[in-house]
Amino acid sequence: MALIGAGKLDEMIDTQYSADCLHISPWDIIPGTPPPHILRGREELKKFFHIYMKAQGSISIEKLYDFAETGDSIAFQAIFTSNSGRWVVGDAWHMRDGQIDIHYGFCHKLD
Predict the structure, then answer these.
(1) 11: pLDDT strictly greater than 90
(2) Region 2-109: CATH code
(3) Please, what's the largest Cα pairwise distance for the chain?
(4) Digit-coded pLDDT (tens) for 65-81
(5) pLDDT of residue 31
């Protein structure tokens, strides 16, 4: 979150995601391409995250809950408000060698 807040999206992806990562996203933010978006590799993920953060703008986290961690997985849910409204979101990450290799995203708008 610190890297995202500092606008260091590429650094966040390079250090926290495996080179062959897979990300499945429900966000409807890529023009002409309806979700879900299936992104493969760091370069696709970087393009997506830059579009995503531009659409969201500032994100204010209201609540973080249902956090769970196992030896190779992390999952949580949150409620946040951004330029695009108020959302319930969830993320589940499968980890390999200390990096995210599979990232499942979930969301629905509250407003």
Answers:
(1) yes
(2) 3.10.450.50
(3) 39
(4) 999 999 999 999 999 99
(5) 86
Instruction: Report d(CA 69, CA 71) in Å as an integer.
Output: 7
Count of other CB atoms within 10 angstroms of residue 9: 17
Provide the 3-class DSSP secondary structure of residue 30.
coil
53: part of which helix (H) or strand (E)? Answer: helix 41-56
Q: Could you list the beta-strand ranges (E) of 17-57.
A: 17-25, 37-40
Give the N- to C-terminal CA distance of the chain in Å, as an integer.
Answer: 24
Contact 103, 20 (CB under 8 A): no
- Domain positions in the chain: 2-109
Which tokens is 102 given?
């599979």
Confidence label for 6 from pLDDT (cuts 50, 70 and 90): confident
